[in-house]
Write a structure and sequence with these properties.
56% of the residues lie in helices and 8% in strands. It has 216 residues and is α+β, with helices and mostly antiparallel strands. The longest helix is centred in the middle third of the chain and has 30 residues. The structure holds glutathione. The site of glutathione (GSH) has 11 residues, from helix 1 and helix 3. The site of glutathione has 11 residues, from helix 1 and helix 3.
Amino acid sequence: MSLRLYYHPLSSFCWKALVALFENDTPFEPHIVDLGDAESSAAFKKIWPIGKFPVLRDETKDLTIPESSIIIEYLDEHYPGPTKLVPGNADLARDVRLRDRFYDLHVHIHMQAIVGDRLRPPGNKDPYGVAQARSRLATALGMIEEDMAAKTWAMGDAFSMADCAAAPALYYTNKVLPFTDSHKNTAAYFNRLMKRPSFARTVREAEPYQNLFPQS
Ligand SMILES: N[C@@H](CCC(=O)N[C@@H](CS)C(=O)NCC(=O)O)C(=O)O
């Protein structure tokens, strides 16, 4: 097996890479990293000292590829399948990257800040940061609501890297800032994402770990 994914089944950014892998049935060896385990964490940090996952190793080419978007671009280029995740056309590709950045930086990161705060020890919480994240998330959701008024996927008819980014970001956002009653277009898009086999599989495989998600 050429490809090995260092990941955790509950991690939202890892979900993004998993959706891309499952979308094209790309064979890979899953390697679960337990950051709470000193040995597992140290072994992972030898590969990527930043210590954030997902990280892809391509053993055949002796390459380490961190960052979910870079992983998806790499898979699309070197292990292509029926779903083209980044279009060949430069203008369309730029649009996909913009939407991918939007979901990562203006949805995912804020959702992560809110979830991360729940995991902070008492006395180290950041209510100001959480309020700011909630407000920014609300702005982004408003933009998505308008953007998705007449589209099936983030780019229109074709499923792309932008949808790989949107799926986990919206899934966990809906847990911290539920939007399905207030944002009908976003809810319909989220519903389509939940039914997409690649994402449905990702969510299903994480089920045994969902008890680790901080509910409050
Ligand atoms: N920009 C990175 C973000 C990766 C990231 O934040 N991963 C989280 C899990 S969802 C992580 O590794 N957290 C562990 C930590 O921060 O120690 C990407 O797109 O891959």
